[in-house]
Amino acid sequence: MNRFQESLSRHGLALHRGSLHTLQINVGRKCNQTCRHCHVDAAPWRTEMMDATTARHIADWIQAHHPAVVDITGGAPELSEHFRFLVEAARASGCHVIDRNNLTIIETEAFGWLPEFLAANDVEVIASLPCYLEANVNAQRGDGVFEKSIRALRKLNAVGYGTRLPLNLVYNPLGPKLPPPQAELEADYKAELRTRFGIEFTGLFTITNQPIARFAEDLRARGEWDAYLELLANAFNPATVDGLMCRTTLSVGWRGELYDCDFNQMLGMQLNAERGTRNAERSGAPPLHLWDVIPADLAEREIQTGNHCLACTAGAGSSCGGALAGSSQA
Fold first, then answer.
1. Distances from the Cα of 166 to the Cαs of 139, 279, 308, in angstroms?
2. How does DSSP classify residue 35?
3. pTM for this entry
4. Which phi and psi (to 5°) does residue 167 adopt?
């Protein structure tokens, strides 16, 4: 049963793709951390990483079609040997580039060059910092992560991030609950990080934990799966639907395959050549890769959905850019 589709139908809504704005590229599943809430199930032992041929094809597509934004994610995207190449190719094509950075990668010996490289290429940094309290961060992301994150943020500040360059932080709730109001939490973050550590940042994005991958396993192990889905379904907010990232973002996997969003990517819900197919894996149509399409091909396609989509429309909504609307529910 797709409770998300039921919620849409109850409000007379449908979900189709609009004009492409953001190309989000997942370059692989390898990461230097193993976070409890990670929807990618990323870890140091993962081996799924983009190869040179795929990176070249993606760069050629960017140069041909000039998406407004190229959003590079992972895993830790910087662990890809093609990270710098993709950043430079996208910037040369006039794209705004985002690096989804876990902060601790900056503190590893091999990646001390990152702040200067990102600043030199005017890359926006969206960085994970799920709380301004050390105990909460370490509980979610591992011992010592908070201290490393603070050091990394100071290095980013030193090259202009948070002042001249955009530095946005990401908050994820600790456990099966909705985020608090984004603006209020941002004010708390800014006050705490400025007062205690002298750190400046641009804005805060609150993102609801997705009931997939590692977080889903944790929910089931604790017997909280049904209660969390019920929480998300009961908090469905129709005012969030127009702003859902899947309407204007195209997700590209490490092999160049296409998805409506990064969450669908982790569930294997790949786009195929048959338009308007909600259950693509059952259609038998050939799967699509980035080099099989042009942006116009994507417009008005029906978006594949599942129960996990309830996380994006609960309360104030949730996307890779944070909250979508007011917190009213219906």
1. 27, 38, 30
2. -
3. 0.91
4. -130, 105
The CATH architecture to which 18-214+245-304 belongs is: Alpha-Beta Barrel (3.20)
Condensed to tens digits (0 to 9), the pLDDT of residues 229-279 reads: 999 999 999 999 999 999 999 999 999 999 999 899 988 899 987 654 444
More confident residue, 23 or 173: 23
CA distances from 13 to 17, 245, 305 (A): 13, 16, 13
Largest CA distance in the chain: 57
Virtual torsion, Cα 28, 29, 33, 34, nearest 10 deg: 170
Structure tokens at 173: 């709730």
The residue extents of the domains of the chain are 18-214+245-304
Mean pLDDT score across all residues of the chain: 88
User: Quick one: how far is CA 239 from the chain centroid?
Assistant: 21
For the record, the structure tokens of 281 come out as: 């894996």
Q: Give CA torsion, residues 100, 105, 106, 107, to 10 deg.
A: 150
Quick one: DSSP state of residue 126? E
Question: Which pLDDT does position 276 carry in this prediction?
Answer: 46
